Amino acid sequence: MPSYRDFHRRSIEDPEAFWREEAKRIHWETPFDTVLDRSNPPFARWFVGGRTNLCHNAVDRHLADRPQQNALIYVSTETGIERRYTYTELHAEINRMAAVMRSLGVKRGDRVLIYLPMIPEAVFAMLACARLGAIHSVVFGGFAAPNLAARIDDAQPVLIVTADAGARGGKVIDYTPLVDEALARATHKPPHVLLIDRQLAPERLNASYLIDYEPLREQFFDAHVPCEWLESNEPSYVLYTSGTTGRPKGVQRDVGGYAVALAASMKYIFEGRPGDTMFTASDIGWVVGHSYIIYAPLLAGLTTVMYEGTPVRPDGGVWWRLVEHHRINLMFTAPTAIRVLKKQDPALLKQSDLSSLRTLFLAGEPLDEPTASWIGDALGKPIVDNYWQTETGWPMLAIQRGVEVLPPKLGSPGVPVYGYDLTLLNEDTGEPCAPGEKGVITLGYPLPPGCMATVWHDDARFIDTYWSSVPNQHVYSTFDWGVQDEDGYVTILGRTDDVINIAGHRLGTREIEEALSSHTAVAEVAVVGVADALKGQVALAFVVLRDAGGYATDEARRTLETDLVKTVDRQLGAIARPARVHVVAILPKTRSGKLLRRAIAALAEGREPGDLPTIEDPAALQQVREALDTQRS
Ligand code: AMP
């Protein structure tokens, strides 16, 4: 195994040589002529001129060596359904889906919006897009209609693939009425909507534009659709993520760089070997789902386990039984899930044979020390915290299991991963931070393969948002605070912007504020993220009413609060729901009118906000204090 330092240094000093070697992990139909095109910073183009295809690399390429190995194991504790697909069977299903899409006019470069629950057809649809050279844009099933409409308008899909319903915790969520509302709201009208009918929705919408998948699948049962060979830098997908504005950004990914980066990460970070079984408990609507439920495990010839359900239904032992039953080697989830499991009977963990499990990976939000210690002790296996974001597509910080395995330090996701020129910079001067000094986590140019290529249809936004925020430096900002110790280990200290992280899900406080502002009773609103023992963070809202007199009684206030919470549910989905909505007469702002969200968050977490020389009216803080006191009492 290479030494960590040498390996990392080589990747930064000579990225061309480093990635030329790693590019051998995938099939190139036409070899690339240039490893890296740096002619137009901050844009970087990897493997220029090379032609390849993600679906070919994830599936077709394995048909010779592992045709009968399971590629996908699907388990739903919501419906009781379990299905297995060998690489041969997965290949056939993708071909059927691709043929159906093709018959509906989908072609290379077209966008296909996928709004599906955790069902195998979601995997078929994503890989069918990859096969055809179409660009998938998966929208998390928990998002509501206005969210979906915004993504339809931005991505302008030629096709939407959806299902009658999803299910979570025993509750069925009808999808078709949400799609219907989104289509009514959106300006762009996709010509087709394909429906996977699980026969789960009690009352499925009967709109004429819904095309049933099943008869088409039958019609194209024996179809073979050739892979489109795409230039390495053509887009593979767009995945929307929250930022500081109410308008989510479409993170655009390439084809060749992503394939190479993920295949390499399976070896060097996850130590996943062909034939292993990996269970990533996330959702296809998030980047972890894209990269580590679907693409990376399949690119590397593993079996991937896709799970619909919660970690505690029918009981808190369900995931551990999956490990035993499917001989799972690698598991990947978010710290929130472990905090949920920690509340369960510890005996449940001991009841299953976990001998197949080598490593548990955790990402998406800070891993607190008690949770890390508890699960580490309970499993007796390495726990690998890893830090990254939708934009990067794969980990930036980790103890890399396939390089020299450095000793972990509790509270830190580890050291910079090869390929990432990660530096902590002073927010005001742009100077590098000394060990122990807090700074913004930044990445030098070029970003390694697999990272976002640009913001969909908005190169200017890519430059302005990500590459222009640190003074005197042309670096990519992660918008995370961190601190690095003398050995290079980084600890994450929270966001520099107004993005919050609820149970591993990233949300912009601005989005929630906009949803609340749409309620007629609301004049002004501030939303902040505050620490929560289970979810990492929750959202708290403070609203100023247009007509406070109209809600004078406790009952009227309670009804209003319920109504406001429902407004967020309707506009953004339940994941964005604030834990509490407080009514105040005035919000703390600077004299120039900027909301002092950090001061509010400090009070909500029981900290003092410190000096606020620019505050317009100190009485506003007192209002927030009083509202919080009533909540606590
Ligand atoms: P997302 O793009 O939704 O995956 O969210 C990415 C953000 O989640 C990062 O910018 C961090 O703020 C946070 N995050 C992800 N992984 C970790 C981790 N291992 N430790 C601390 N924060 C994390």
UniProtKB/TrEMBL annotation:
Pfam families linked: ACAS_N, AMP-binding, AMP-binding_C
Positions of the AMP-dependent synthetase/ligase domain: 60-444
Keywords noted in UniProt: ATP-binding, Ligase, Membrane, Nucleotide-binding, Transmembrane, Transmembrane helix
GO biological process, one term: propionate catabolic process, 2-methylcitrate cycle
Organism superkingdom: Bacteria
NCBIfam families: PRK00174.1, PRK10524.1, propion_prpE
Name this protein carries in UniProt: Propionate--CoA ligase
Organism of provenance: Paraburkholderia acidicola
